[in-house]
Amino acid sequence: MIDRTDIGAVIDEMYAMISGPAGPRDWSRQAAIFHPASRQIRTWIGPDGMPALKAMTPAQYAADTTPFFAANPFYEVEIGRRVEQFGNIAHVWSAYEARRAPDDAAPERRGVNSIQLFRDAGGHWQIIAMIWDNERAGVSVGDF
To answer: Is there a domain that residue 141 lies in?
Structure first.
């Protein structure tokens, strides 16, 4: 059981819920930390060189990633975090490395998650939006 009154514990759970060996993920863990109206937004550079995005509800994210997680080990490890809070809202910048095994010498990719949270009437933090971008030429996690 995570302490949902602690922003750091919610972020740690977000990484833990998607990380693991090839196989199914426990999507009830996602429901515990993401607001039902939240959005998870993947960004990338398209073949035309232009920025693109895909915004997903929690259910859409689970459906979109389930085939990948079923076939591939995936471990996303946080390598840096900045938290800013004002009242019942918070913003977390979280740098990450993605690996196929927790002890891989080099990550397969790195990037940054921008995570917005809301504290509800019970004092529990929920992720309301998360958008991420991967490192590439001209965009380095080292500059983060």
So the answer is: no
Residue 1 in any domain: the answer is no
Query: Looking at the domain assignment, is residue 143 inside a domain?
Result: no
Q: Report the DSSP beta bridge partners of residue 36.
A: none
Whether 29 and 17 have beta carbons less than 8 Å apart is answered as yes
Count of the separate structural domains present in the chain: 1
Domain of residue 60, residue span: 7-136
Is 142 inside a domain boundary?
Answer: no
User: In a structure prediction context, what are the per-residue pLDDT tens digits for the chain, which is 144 residues long?
Assistant: 899 999 999 999 999 999 999 999 999 999 999 999 999 999 999 999 999 999 999 999 999 999 999 999 999 999 999 999 999 999 999 999 999 998 899 999 999 999 999 999 999 999 999 999 999 999 999 877
The model scores a pTM over 0.90: yes
C-alpha span between 126 and 144 (Å, rounded): 24
Buried b (16+ CB within 10 A) or exposed e, 116-132: bbbbeeeebbbbbbbbb
What is the CATH number for 117?
3.10.450.50
